[in-house]
Amino acid sequence: MTWVLPQELTDYIIESFWDDPRTLRSCALTCRAWLFTNNSHLAAYHASRKEIRSVADLDLLSRRLSRRESRRFHRNVVELQVHEGRKGGFAHTIPFRVSGAFLPNLERLSFVSVGQTVRRVLHWHYSVSKHVGLYRRVSRLRFDHCRLPSLETLRRIVFSLPSLQSLSLNHANTEFLPSCTHSAIEDAAILRQHPKVVELQILRCTFNRPSGLRHLLQWFRPDVAGKLVFGIEMVVLSRRDIRLLRLSVWQLIAQDTQRILHGLKTRIDRLPNSIRVLLDWNAGVKRLRCSCDIRKV
């Protein structure tokens, strides 16, 4: 007579080895009845996309990476998404607890709903950018519905990623203000060290001041000490200063939008044929819809 342990007891035993993939594999090969429960745990180690939606998820991933025997199972992770949601206040600790040294193939990093649930936007310590720099292969950085304390915080994060090629800001109800802690000369020195960002997307972002957008786009210009103009003119309309291969801007809300629109309307005929601009505006709403594709400039 074959004696079989109750499924509840089997699950309880296997659950105690959730952070030991070698033991889980041995259990899966030992008994067919143990296979299903083991596979559910082993699948988490081989997933190429990781999501952190709570402090518990962060603790789980951090504990798995802290075990030397389980680190090699996370080498195939290519995408990490941090979703604070209603339980915010932990996004700035991600670089410390999930070190980029343990995720060598990570290529896409996303932050969703960061700082939306707290009354006061948390200050990100300057050392965060230093640890973000360990994500050496991250080429795409995305912020969706996020509130960061300042442009300076975003600037440090952007320039700490050595392989960054794409930056996307989607529906950022920003606290962004023009930074006064760095000079144009300092920015130019950083740009010479930073690889060329070839794609920038600004989707439904609100800037408290027109100069907020100016400072944001300023980071991607090769000559930041030159004459500055408002809004997207400096990237799209000034052919000498074009550094981006692609620029997409939708529903940009900013003060003094009329000046940006007037500049686009009066200079649109001067654009080279390699730049295609689709423009639609509503003066009453002060909302700009623009899509540009820059090739072979």
UniProtKB/TrEMBL annotation:
In terms of domain of life, where is this protein from? Eukaryota
Protein name, entry field: F-box domain-containing protein
